[in-house]
Amino acid sequence: MEMEIPESWFPVLFGFFIVIVMSLIIVLSLWRYRTIRRLMEQQAMKRNGTIVGSFLLPVLKFSYHELPIVVTSVPGTKYRTAKTEVNITLRKITADLKIMTESLGTRLGKAFGASDALLNSEEFDREFLIKTQDESFARNLLDFTLQNKLLGMKQEKPRISLEGTWLAVSVPRVINNEERYDQLFDLVLSIIDRIEQLAPK
Predict the structure, then answer these.
(1) Is 1 part of any domain?
(2) Confidence (pTM)
(3) What is the mean pLDDT of residues 22-38?
(4) Are 130 and 104 in contact (CB under 8 A)?
């Protein structure tokens, strides 16, 4: 004999289901934020840095060649994309440059006449888009070493933005393991080293 659930119970059962789902979402969100903070704490120990900010938005700070480096990692929501970003204020040099991975949108832009700087490196020019008014600076900055590091990270879709003395390097995701943080910081510190080599003495 089958047991029938009274219709009067439906709202109660639905409410119970919503409570369970919301509880799971909260637990998963807290776990995700805890993972972000734990990875930042590991990097802070490795790089003699500190963690500031709140539990939901921790900020990693450390220095390199006496330059302040600020790192944030923000999960995506309905209204924003996920992003891990490293910000640095440089000395001695100012420039305007953007480097990003090629996408359907950028390829369509090229087809309709949009231009970008080329390094005459077939693989790099195919995978990355360079926007700058100073092509000579871009070619000097992106030496063989930096090109290889960017190509090694192309699946992560790194984006580099240099505006005046402000440098930002980001990937469109929350970094979820130490190896990827190390890879991102290796790229960032190599960019800083190269910029300092090019800066006026």
Answers:
(1) no
(2) 0.79
(3) 69
(4) no
